[in-house]
């Protein structure tokens, strides 16, 4: 006797193309994460949807504790349906679609101990199905999947597990640049463009944001937080009751082998030699929030390393730069404020204020050209220009 569903299951049912490209677990119905009763189907049944993109740059799909609770809660209703969806190269595939009930033969199991045993077994079975899923999708589209959630009839709960590194459309992270990720302006523009789905009546938990797999470079904590805030704003802009699940998603190597575009990630430089050896570029995308000149908490240990590496008596010129975006005057002002913030941070680390000078160039003298022949922004080059450069002169 098992807890597997045998009734009403269908396979390989296509879903809208917007669903491809996101590792996601959607629970519509059951009181997942304490969110209520979920979407009602005819006859009072609820539906639990588990969907995964399983792309090559993300962790292999697995159930978080939140998702396990959603499965157990749905099983506890004795009137739920389960749908497992995996994204594909062309369109999503429905791996399972049928009743989700704990049965003893043809009858619903009522013994408490046996129900607990069957529930654990069913959770493990679902985890194994997800672990073997390989989407072979060539891109990641979290925005498209949120649209699929929005189109699900009735109120419900969705637990979404995704790295959030969108690689398609206007919200592609590489095209936005990390200084704009998390900016309210990005979400506002997406809403004006009609890209934000109507999530009214939906409870959405965003989980696994920023969790990646090689060849995608890992994200430092400030960028993970910034990415999570962007998707939280995006979800809330659609009227959803949205929150961030901080539990890590660690499923191991993905089954999918289709290459997916990677997103350039600025890395904090390791300063272990005297800074006078060559100019040091401190990436603004990590030191500051979007459109902000306030140092993030993570900047303090880096500036402590810089201060320790500076030769005694040296003079340091701090040059702020930005990517070639927006009015030149605004770019100069922002870059100057950021260079000044780094100066103040170094002073707090014991560097004499008189040894530090500041200049804000905006994008007047970029480190590298960040526009191509057609005038389009080159993401990797723009990312490098968003920096505060330290030019050190020995006494």
From TrEMBL:
Q: Tell me the SUPFAM superfamilies matching this sequence.
A: OmpA-like
Q: Where is the OmpA-like domain?
A: 275-395
InterPro entries, per the entry: Bact_OuterMem_StrucFunc, OmpA-like, OmpA-like_sf
Pfam hit, one = OmpA
Highest taxon listed in the record's lineage: Bacteria
The UniProt keyword set, sorted, is: Membrane
Q: Give the protein name, as stated in the record.
A: OmpA family protein
């Amino acid at each position: 006797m098992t807890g597997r569903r045998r009734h009403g299951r269908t396979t390989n049912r296509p879903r809208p193309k917007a669903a491809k490209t996101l590792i996601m677990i959607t629970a519509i119905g059951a009181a997942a994460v304490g969110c209520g009763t979920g979407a009602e189907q005819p006859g009072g049944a609820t539906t639990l949807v588990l969907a995964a993109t399983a792309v090559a740059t993300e962790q292999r799909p697995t159930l978080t504790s939140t998702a396990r609770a959603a499965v157990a809660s749905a099983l506890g209703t004795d009137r739920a349906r389960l749908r497992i969806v995996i994204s594909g190269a062309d369109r999503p595939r429905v791996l399972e679609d049928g009743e989700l009930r704990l049965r003893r033969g043809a009858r619903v199991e009522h013994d408490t101990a046996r129900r607990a045993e069957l529930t654990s077994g069913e959770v493990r079975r679902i985890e194994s199905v997800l672990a073997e899923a390989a989407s072979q999708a060539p891109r990641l589209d979290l925005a498209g999947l949120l649209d699929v959630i929005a189109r699900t009839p009735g109120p419900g709960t969705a637990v979404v597990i995704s790295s959030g590194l969108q690689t398609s459309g206007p919200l592609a992270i590489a095209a936005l640049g990390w200084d704009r990720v998390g900016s309210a302006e990005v979400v506002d523009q997406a809403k004006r463009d009609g890209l934000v789905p109507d999530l009214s009546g939906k409870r959405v938990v965003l989980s696994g944001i920023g969790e990646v797999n090689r060849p995608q470079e890992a994200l430092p904590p400030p960028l993970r937080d910034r990415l999570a805030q962007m998707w939280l704003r995006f979800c809330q802009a659609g009227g959803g009751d949205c929150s961030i699940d901080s539990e890590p998603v660690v499923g191991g190597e993905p089954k999918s082998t289709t290459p997916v575009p990677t997103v350039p990630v600025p890395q904090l430089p390791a300063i272990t030699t005297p800074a006078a050896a060559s100019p040091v570029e401190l990436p603004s995308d990590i030191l500051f929030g979007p459109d902000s000149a306030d140092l993030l908490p993570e900047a303090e240990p880096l500036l402590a390393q810089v201060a320790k590496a500076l030769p005694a008596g040296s003079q340091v010129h701090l040059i702020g730069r930005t990517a070639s975006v927006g009015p030149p005057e605004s770019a100069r002002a922002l870059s100057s404020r950021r260079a000044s913030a780094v100066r103040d941070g170094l002073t707090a680390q014991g560097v004499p204020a008189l040894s530090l000078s500041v200049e804000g160039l905006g994008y007047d003298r970029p480190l590298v050209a960040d526009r191509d022949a057609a005038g389009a922004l080159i993401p990797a080059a723009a990312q490098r220009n968003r920096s505060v450069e330290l030019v050190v002169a020995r006494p």
